[in-house]
Amino acid sequence: MTTTRTAARPFGRTLCAMITPFTEAGDLDPDGARELAERLVAEGCDGLVLNGTTGESPTTSDTEKTQLITAVREAVGDRASLVAGVGTADTRHTVELARAAGAAGADGVLVVTPYYSRPPQEAVEAHFREVADASDLPVMLYDIPGRTGTRIEPETMIRLAAHPRIVAVKDCSYDLLGTQKVLARTDLAYYAGCDEHVLALYAIGAAGCVSTVANAAPGHIAAILDAFDTGDTARATELQLRATPLIEAMMGAGLPGTVTAKALLARLGLPAGPVRAPLLPAGQEPADGLLASYEELVAA
Predict the structure, then answer these.
(1) Among the listed residues 202, 186, 205, the one whose alpha carbon sits nearest the alpha carbon of residue 194
(2) Which of 3, 100, 9 has its CA nearest to residue 50?
(3) Can you tell me the distance from the alpha carbon of 224 to that of 227, in angstroms, rounded to the nearest whole number?
(4) The domain spanning residue 119 has which CATH number?
(5) Number of domains, the chain
(6) Is the residue at 241 inside a domain?
């Protein structure tokens, strides 16, 4: 059941919040990134978000961010959109990263609310406008107050929607009413940023998702949306619920999604490598549980 809103997909429909593979020595692994990106696209992702939360953006250098975009673009060509995380706590630095992302081949930028300084809404709005004005790339706003300490309030979102290059939102607000208000009053393309909300937001008009779980199970996440698009809402519900144990293991068990995604990918023999400090790797017991949940999902 395709709605009017789901037709507006500026960055695709099934996006993966891709990890940043590192070598065992902790350096950027461009070959691993190419391999992982190729697999994700081949198995159902039509967009990749690089240098985001799951991509360990706080601990990768500006040079590494650019190198990752270049490597992934080489691997996937025009088969998937690339959205580059460029958000920082510093507006000037964010502008620099947005321009560098465009030069490296990104199709859009993901801009998180400035964190730590906790700017008021007037300053939040000014920050996003300055970044959008500074680059030709379309912008996906990233609303994740649990990490930044600051919401993009619905009224702020509605005002920002008038900017010609602010076209989408990665929604990790956990505020369904606020999301519905913005969906009802703007043409912003919403992407569910929390895997447990993939189907729920899609059903009320989201454009798709930016999924961490898709690092391991891209085909399953795509299948949820496929089923809904064909009108088989019962099947879509079944698939969403079937993914719940893996979603909980990866996103709700007390470890960051970066840590769980890398632990599971390593168990699957896929490029991942270590996490960077201050994150710590998952222990054997959580990694065993992740693998068990994944195997249960793919065996069903």
Answers:
(1) 202
(2) 100
(3) 5
(4) 3.20.20.70
(5) 1
(6) no
Q: What is the pLDDT of residues 114-169, one digit of tens each?
A: 999 999 999 999 999 999 999 999 999 999 999 999 999 999 999 999 999 999 99
281 assigned to some structural domain? no
**Does the annotation list 54 as a binding residue?**
yes
The answer to whether residue 210 is domain-embedded is yes
Alpha-helix residue ranges (DSSP H) falling in 117-255? 121-134, 145-148, 154-160, 176-185, 198-203, 218-229, 233-242, 244-251
Instruction: Write out the catalytic residue numbers.
Output: 142, 170
Q: What domain range includes position 143?
A: 14-233
Asked, for residue 125, whether it belongs to a domain, the answer is: yes
State which amino acid sits at residue 179: T
Residue 281 backbone class (left: φ over 0; alpha: ψ -120 to 50; beta: rest): beta
Binding residue per annotation — 212?
no
Place of tokens 């920082």: 88
**CA quadruple 9, 37, 215, 105: dihedral sign:** negative
